């Protein structure tokens, strides 16, 4: 796949930016665009940071943070947080594996999904609101940046729970080690622009361990990963980064 086409495809796949370019791609080559996910995450984070900067002198900090988060969900069509809710609906339904997978495909939102969404967003807002100084800008960028890398890591380290069906099946278990390393390189290059190398490596290590544990737990429950559970991994990791940066900010004060 041509790299420019791969980058455009990653933007079209991961955001709702109206890019009027038709990219013809073989289904077997679809996974090759994942290495550009971190760049897309960095762009989403940059937009969120800009929205915070534009609103922080107009509204209270909590509202400015909420505006920044809302912009990121609008930009991505809420695709990852939708998967997060569906994952909770399925995993905590106390049903069989096949039934859990059916519940995840259901477009209707259940009680478990609603509660998970509410607590997730509240926790993000609370931790981001209490981050001291200009670290908030770095945090808003690092959250989707590392979150998208975590999607790649989870897809690399697992197999498809649906036997390759669905959008998730196009990348789960199909990412090469080279593509994983390239995505790690891209993530590192962007990430170290905003935080010190030592800090970035700690964030990456923590998020990678959490990604591995979540992926193993979900795979144990449903026999692999799906597009919805990859979205859940992203949302978990964004919260992990927000919490980590919160503790970093208060130790620096």
Kindly estimate the percentage of residues that lie in beta strands according to DSSP: under 5%
Query: Given the structure, what is the number of helices?
Result: 10
Mean pLDDT: 91
Order of helices and strands: HHHHHHHHHH
Number of strands: 0
Q: What structural category characterises the helix and strand content?
A: mainly alpha
Fraction of helical residues: over 70%
Globular, elongated, flat, extended or rod-shaped: what is the shape? globular
Task: Reconstruct the topology from this structure.
Layout: H1 3-14, H2 37-55, H3 61-76, H4 79-91, H5 97-105, H6 111-129, H7 135-156, H8 177-194, H9 197-222, H10 227-252
Helix pairs in contact: 2-3, 2-7, 2-8, 3-6, 4-5, 4-6, 4-10, 6-10, 7-8, 7-9, 7-10, 9-10
Search tags:
globular; 71% helix; 0% strand; mainly alpha; 253 residues; single chain; 10 helices
What can be said about this structure in brief?
With 253 residues, the chain is mainly alpha-helical. 71% of the residues lie in helices and 0% in strands. It has helices at residues 3-14, 37-55, 61-76, 79-91, 97-105, 111-129, 135-156, 177-194, 197-222, 227-252.
């Amino acid at each position: 796949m041509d790299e420019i086409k791969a980058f455009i495809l990653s933007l079209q796949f991961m955001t709702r930016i109206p890019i009027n370019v038709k990219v013809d791609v073989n289904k077997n080559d679809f996974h090759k665009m994942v290495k550009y996910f971190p760049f897309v995450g960095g762009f989403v984070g940059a937009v969120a940071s800009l929205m915070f900067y534009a609103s922080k002198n107009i509204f209270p900090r909590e509202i400015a943070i909420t505006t920044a988060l809302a912009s990121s969900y609008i930009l991505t069509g809420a695709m990852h947080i939708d998967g997060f809710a569906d994952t909770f609906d399925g995993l905590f339904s106390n049903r069989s594996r096949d039934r859990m997978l059916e519940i995840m495909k259901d477009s209707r939102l259940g009680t478990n999904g609603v509660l998970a969404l509410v607590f997730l967003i509240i926790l993000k807002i609370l931790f981001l609101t209490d981050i001291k100084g200009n670290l908030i800008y770095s945090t808003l960028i690092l959250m989707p940046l590392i979150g998208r890398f975590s999607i790649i890591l989870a897809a690399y380290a697992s197999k498809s729970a649906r036997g390759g069906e669905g959008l998730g099946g196009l990348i789960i278990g199909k990412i090469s080690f080279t593509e994983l390393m390239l995505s790690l390189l891209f993530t590192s290059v962007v990430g170290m622009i905003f935080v010190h190398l030592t800090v970035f490596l700690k964030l990456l290590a923590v998020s990678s361990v959490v990604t591995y544990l979540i992926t193993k737990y979900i795979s144990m429950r449903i026999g692999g990963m799906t597009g919805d559970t990859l979205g859940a991994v992203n949302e978990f990791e964004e919260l992990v980064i927000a919490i980590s940066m919160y503790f970093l900010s208060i130790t620096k004060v």
